[in-house]
What we know:
Number of helices of chain A: 8
Helix content of chain A: 55-70%
Low-confidence stretches of chain A: 98-113
Radius of gyration of chain A: 18 Å
Low-confidence stretches of chain B: none
Number of strands of chain A: 0
Mean pLDDT of chain B: 85
Largest sheet of chain A: none
Mean pLDDT of chain A: 85
Number of strands of chain B: 0
Oligomer: heterodimer
Amino acid sequence: xxxxxxxxLLQRFARGDRDAFEALFRQYERxxxxxxxxxxxxxxxxxxxxxETFWRAYRGHARFDPARSFGAWMRRIATNTAIDQLxxxxxxxxxxxxxxxxxxxxxxxxxxxxxxxxxxxxxxIRRAFGALPPKLRVVATLALIEDVPHAExxxxxxxxxxxxxxxxxxxxxxxxRELEIHDR
Amino acid sequence: MTDERLKELLRTTLPPSAGEELVRDVWPxxxxxxxxxxxxxxxxxxxxxxxxxxxxxxxxxxxxxxYHL
Lengths: 184, 69
């Protein structure tokens, strides 16, 4: 997370100053976008959630305490917005997992691993993952795919670490149940 | 299936994000929200509907409502 903006800027934002809000937007838009993209995994959906996140932040400016971390506050709003978006997508049966192309694999040791060559298995993974309730899916995405530490996930969700572990356990159990029949 | 196997399957099928950058300036979209007039929320609509129903059932309450407006 980047350095915190100066206290004066945060105090002006908390009073509803739009110029201060724009300055904070310019400072944090990339970081918040990357965080949302890690959760929703589709650039257009992430842009929509980014706009909604900052709008919610502006509407909630009076609740922001300038003595606290702006970055952490934004990350929590972004996470809730992303969950709302996943819920909405789930209700409309639109799961943006198709957008996750193999070509976007980063240059890391993982990218040299052999992908499951069984199309059916890969399809089962996408479907099983997309079928997870958003609250479990977010934790599974961040913990299992993005390797985000549990404490950071807990902070972003505003829940205790124990809740993160419990959601991860439930997500893993559901995924395993769905995938075991394909992985024999 | 072990946790490691599950994690490997997930990460090979749904790869971690590669840190893609925002390609568009979305500030104009955000700024346009300031210009929009405040819309009706579900609470507003519910209250308006309740008042209409109440006035339909008890027209004499119109005076009470007018007094409070």
